[in-house]
Design goal:
Radius of gyration: 23 Å
GO molecular function: acid-thiol ligase activity
InterPro entries: AMP-bd_C (IPR025110), AMP-bd_C_sf (IPR045851), AMP-binding_CS (IPR020845), AMP-dep_synth/lig_dom (IPR000873), ANL_N_sf (IPR042099)
Protein name: O-succinylbenzoate--CoA ligase
Strand order of the largest sheet: 2-1-10-9-11-12-13-14-15
Helix content: 25-40%
Number of strands: 24
Pfam families: AMP-binding (PF00501), AMP-binding_C (PF13193)
CATH topology of one domain: Rossmann fold
Keywords: Ligase
Largest sheet: 9 strands, mixed
Strand content: 25-35%
Shape: globular
Structural class: alpha/beta
Oligomer: single chain
CATH class of one domain: Alpha Beta
Length: 502
């Protein structure tokens, strides 16, 4: 098994060999042949510096051509890549470095940050910006050095370590097998159906499971072209990238789609497909986005524990409000708290998945591994509803459920009611402890810019009274200018909880 050949080398004897594989703001376009040679050159650098095949290596860098080359070069040399988000704090990066046991890394950050990280990562050998220099040197000389032989991979060999977001505690490392990476094009890849000629743009970064699949695993195997976005991603930045690069496939998250639904300019658009993941996609938002973009919006669900997307709607029948069905090769069941499969005309419970990409467990966390990786697969942490023979509906995250007077309430249920109120641009509900230590629901509302805030507040209160039982109604309503989001554009509920506690 050879990972670089599987994803890149397969195109070198085809008309795609000189077609652009990637586009970024620093190096411009890089073709498949140049990408392959650059990966070999970085592997040669690793070998020359005594890096042992089988080692884990941190890849601490924003999305760029150089970042992709670093990952491919590591695989060429037989090393497992550990992508890390550079937006994390020095302390968080230091934790991941120690937890994963990496001994060296590819680091591409600013000079000021680099000096701070040198203190945070004293025991890690760093290849700083070497990849970019290798590519530029190859371009100047027009020649490529003879690369070392590629390391062969066993199917169960660790090739990628991804860290969970740590939203419910410290981040946990998930080791993915080489065979899992190769399976992705056969799973969700069959639904996205990328092809040579497609131009892919993902707002999720390579340091996240969703972005890694969007920008590397799927498009490379398909021979497509991928646009890599460097820096923070917001609606204006994405809109500009859409106008400039005219992608055919867009991968993003619901909150960015909500912004695009208001500002997207379809003149000159070449979009044929949009994919959403990362958080719940309300049915009304899905319909608005599809009307504005003029293309199917595939709603999907994935998890770091299983590498990439596991459930998705059919582009031909998007089905707003559902997360669709398991992708090819995946089995999804709804289970109770004891792990028993629920069977009935309509059931609700924990989502359990099994398939080729499900990892074996977390790094050095046996208790958490036993809780999540059980019953022949993994629990995603989601509560879902399923009708017999029908699609799966997302209810909420198990750890986001509110305990209100002994009743379990999904924030999404309250949010769905509030979003229907005229004048509400966005909203979110979180649980916050009151003075007695009891959990209360706090509703945060973003008002449309041209609406009078007090009138919208009154309308929200009236709607809640009409639509929800008293036990489900928020105890407090806060009007805010915007909802906090993470680096990838997902709602940062932990920040809202902190705000609500004060």
């Amino acid at each position: 098994m050879n990972l670089v050949e599987f994803f890149v080398g397969r195109h070198l004897d085809s008309p795609r060999k000189d077609a652009p594989a990637y586009i970024d703001s620093e190096l411009g376009e890089i073709g498949y042949t140049e990408l392959y040679r650059a990966a070999g050159a970085f592997a040669d650098l690793l070998s020359g510096n005594g890096v042992a095949p089988g080692s884990r290596a941190m890849v601490l860098a924003d999305d760029s051509v150089a970042t992709v080359v670093a990952v491919l070069g590591l695989w060429w040399h037989g090393c497992a890549a550990v992508p890390v988000n550079p937006a994390l704090s020095d302390k968080e990066i230091g934790f991941i470095a120690a937890d994963s046991g990496v001994k060296f890394g590819y680091v591409d950050v600013s000079g000021t940050r680099l000096s701070r990280l040198a203190a945070a990562l004293p025991d890690i050998g760093q290849f700083r910006n070497h990849v970019r220099e290798l590519i530029l040197r190859q371009r100047r000389s027009g020649e490529a050095a003879t690369p070392p032989p590629q390391q062969q991979w066993l199917p169960d060999q660790e090739a990628l370590v991804q860290y969970t977001s740590g939203s419910t505690g410290v981040p946990k490392g998930v080791a993915h097998r080489a065979s899992a990476l190769q399976w992705v094009p056969s799973g969700f890849g069959r639904i996205a159906a990328l092809a040579p000629g497609d131009i892919v743009l993902s707002t999720a970064k390579l340091s996240f499971a969703y972005g890694f699949g969007n920008s590397l695993l799927l498009p490379l195997h398909a021979g497509a072209t991928t646009v890599l976005l460097n820096g923070g991603v917001d609606a204006q930045f994405v809109a500009a990238a859409l106008r400039r690069h005219r992608p055919t496939v867009l991968f993003s998250v619901p909150r960015l789609y909500a912004a695009l639904a208001e500002s997207f300019d379809d003149r000159g658009s070449r979009l044929r497909l949009a994919v959403s993941a990362g958080e719940a996609l309300p049915a009304d938002l899905s319909e608005r986005v599809m009307r504005r973009l003029g293309v199917p919006l595939v709603n999907s669900l994935g998890t770091t524990e299983a590498l990439y997307i596991l459930l998705a709607t059919n582009p031909a029948e998007p089905g707003p409000g559902t997360i669709g069905r398991p992708v090819p090769g995946v089995r999804a069941t709804v289970r109770d708290q004891d792990g028993r499969i629920l069977d009935g005309d309509e059931v609700q419970g924990r989502l359990h998945v099994a398939g080729p990409s499900v990892a074996a467990g977390y790094l050095d966390r046996p208790e958490a591994t036993r809780e999540t990786f059980a019953d022949g697969g993994a629990y995603t942490g989601d509560i879902v509803r399923r009708t017999r023979g029908g699609p799966i509906y997302y209810v909420g995250r198990a750890d986001d459920f509110l305990n209100l007077g002994g009743y379990k309430v999904a924030p999404a249920e309250i949010e769905g009611v509030v979003r229907a109120v005229v004048g509400v641009r966005d909203c979110a509900v979180v649980g916050v402890a009151d003075d007695h230590g009891l959990q209360q629901a706090v509703l945060f509302v973003v008002v449309e810019g041209d609406r009078e805030s007090s009138a919208v507040r009154r309308a929200v209160i009236a709607c809640l009274r009409a639509e929800l039982a008293s036990l489900k109604r928020p105890s407090r309503i806060e009007l805010v200018d915007a909802l906090p989001t993470t680096w990838t554009g997902k709602l940062a509920r932990n920040q809202l909880r902190a705000i609500g506690a004060h």
